[in-house]
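Input sequence (310 aa), recorded before submission:
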Amino acid sequence: MQHNPGMVRFAPQEIAPQLLLRASIVVAVLTIALKTLAWWITDSVGLLSDAMESLVNLASAVFALVMVTIAVRPADADHPYGHHKAEYFSSGFEGLLIIVAALGIIWAAVQRILHPQPLDQLGWGLTLSVLSSAVNGALAWLMLQSGRRHRSIALEADARHLITDVWTSAGVVVGIGLVALSGWDWLDPAVAIGVALNILREGAALMWKSSQGLMDEAVEPEVMADIEKTLASFSHHTIRFDHISTRRSGQRRFVDLHMHMPAAWTLGRAAAVRASVEQALMSAVPGLRATIQLLPSDVEAHFDDEKDLI
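Predicted structure, token format:
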């Protein structure tokens, strides 16, 4: 079958983060309505926990959209390195909301264990829960593809939260199904507590990842491997590299290093080689910003002098 050049191929990873976050807001409102209705007709605390997590989805998507919009702003006089770290605030905020929602779920589940109530109309409740989970799952897949393509931690965090929501719903469905089969009403709040513990784990992981980004965490191992491979292609008995340091800042990656070369070289020749290395690095790692300091071969830079630590 021949490819029609007039056809447009669908590439989910190319969808802009802002568009997907707007879609996430719409989907969150839809799933809140479906899951709240499911809880209302069944009186299941498990489905209530599912609906509460969807409220977190809505708040997180709104905040993520604001932070992603800020992150793409160009550098200015007050922020010469750009606004890319704004995305880490989104991830941390989402983690905090997840933890608060989980504690609320545990409280509601404990109350139900102390005061058990039978469940009603389980068929309708399960149907609505499964429908909302299918919508969340499809959106999460699109967001993960785009988040990896654009290296957006805010988008990826929102996607992983949606995936957690899907697993949460699956657990709730299983729990309610067991209640229907066994007649053991205590299984409903027990499943809700299990769901809450899983949500707590996800929230803590998001907050940890956000904190690491705010503290200038080094680039990923695979990115560092690309940097080292590129530098190795320029290494020569007259050229060497050292003091390589990297950091992440939202969608951006930064690398600073020293390039040693013969002192007899002219400034023009040295600058031309440096430009070639910088261009090669930025081509190997999209979004990378390379800063290279030129030094003569017989000069070493010392960063660990005790005088500099005072």
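Checked by second reader. The chain has two domains: 12-214, 221-309.
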